[in-house]
Amino acid sequence: MTTTLITGANKGLGFETARRLVAAGQTVYVGSRDLQRGRRAAERLGARMVRIDVTDDASVAAAVKAVEADGGLDVLVNNAGVEARSPDGGVIGAEEVTAEAMRTVFETNVFGVVRVTHAFLPLLQRSANPVVVNVSSGLASLTRVTDPDTPAHAYPGVAYPASKAAVNMITVQYAKAFPRMRINAVEPGYTATDLNRHTGTQTVEEGAEIIVRMAQTGPDGPTGGYFDVMGRLPW
Ligand SMILES: NC(=O)c1ccc[n+]([C@@H]2O[C@H](COP(=O)([O-])OP(=O)(O)OC[C@H]3O[C@@H](n4cnc5c(N)ncnc54)[C@H](OP(=O)(O)O)[C@@H]3O)[C@@H](O)[C@H]2O)c1
Which PANTHER family match (predicted)? Predict the structure, then answer.
C-alpha cells in the first residue's frame, strides 16, 4: 500500500490530486496548514489529515512525527504554493517587486519545498519506491519566458516565476543526490483555482493529471525531469 502526503491539499490542485490518489487506492494525507480546512477536506475525500505549514519548522517536524507513527511515507507531493499579488489583486511586476515580496513567496514556494523534503527524507529513504513530485509551473521555464511566441513571455511577475525556477533547480539537484528516488517537477497548466482568482482556463481535473501521474511513477520512471501532461518541458 502506497502512502502519500500532499502539502496544501485542502483545496485546488492539491485537493483534486488527493481525490484521485484516494480513488487509486493509496493512503493519502491531506496536508493543510489550517486544522479545520484540512479536516473538512480529508472527511470529504476519505483521506487522512496532517497539519503542516510549510513555512514553519515545528509544524513540519510534528507532521513527520505523526506520519512516521502511522507507518511512514512513500510519496511526497510538494504542492503548497502562493503567488505575489498587490492589494488590488494584480500580479506584482518588475517595477513594484521588493525583496520582502520575493522573500514571502520564496518562504512557501522554495524554502517550504526544501524544509518539507529535508524533514521527510528519512521516511522516504525507508520506502521501497520513494517518489517526490514538486509542483512547479510553466513560468519556471527560462526557455518559454524568453520566447515571445509563448503565453509565458507576457507574464509580468518576478517573484513567482523566480521561485518556480528555483524549484526546478532544487528538483534536479535532489534527483542527482538521491538516485533511488523518483524526483520530478511538474507544470499543471493554467488552472482555475484561488491562486489566480479562478482565471485559469483548465479545470482542476485537467491540471491535476500530471501531478497524479508523476506521483504514481514506478522505480523505472523518470527522475530529475520537468513535465507537463504532454511530456518533457524545456528548462
Ligand atoms: N493554478 C494554476 O494555474 C497553477 C499553475 C502552475 C502551477 N501551480 C501550482 O500548483 C500548486 C497548487 O496551487 P493551486 O492553483 O491549487 O492554488 P490554491 O487553490 O490557492 O491552493 C494552494 C494551497 O497551498 C496551501 N498553502 C499556501 N501556503 C501554505 C503554507 N505556508 N503551508 C501549507 N500550505 C500552504 C493553501 O492553503 P490555504 O487554503 O490554507 O491557503 C492551499 O491549500 C502551487 O504550487 C501553484 O504554484 C498552479
Answer: (+)-NEOMENTHOL DEHYDROGENASE, SHORT-CHAIN DEHYDROGENASE_REDUCTASE
- 176 catalytic? Reply is no
pLDDT (tens digit, 9 = 90+) per residue, 177-221?
Answer: 999 999 999 999 999 999 999 999 999 999 999 999 999 999 999
| pTM, full prediction | 0.98
11 carries an active-site annotation: no
Taking the domains of the chain in order of start, what are their residue ranges? 3-232
Atom of ligand 1 at shortest range from CA of 135: 45
Decide: 81 in ligand 1 pocket, CB within 6 A: yes
C-alpha cell belonging to residue 215: 506521483
Q: Which of 40, 43, 4, 1 is nearest to 21 (CA)?
A: 4
Q: Which CATH architecture has domain 3-232?
A: 3-Layer(aba) Sandwich (3.40)
Q: In which element (H, E) is residue 27 found? A: strand 27-32
Q: Supply the DSSP string of 186-217, one letter for each residue.
A: E---SB-SGGGTT--SB-HHHHHHHHHHHHT-
In angstroms, the CA 13 to CA 208 distance is: 6
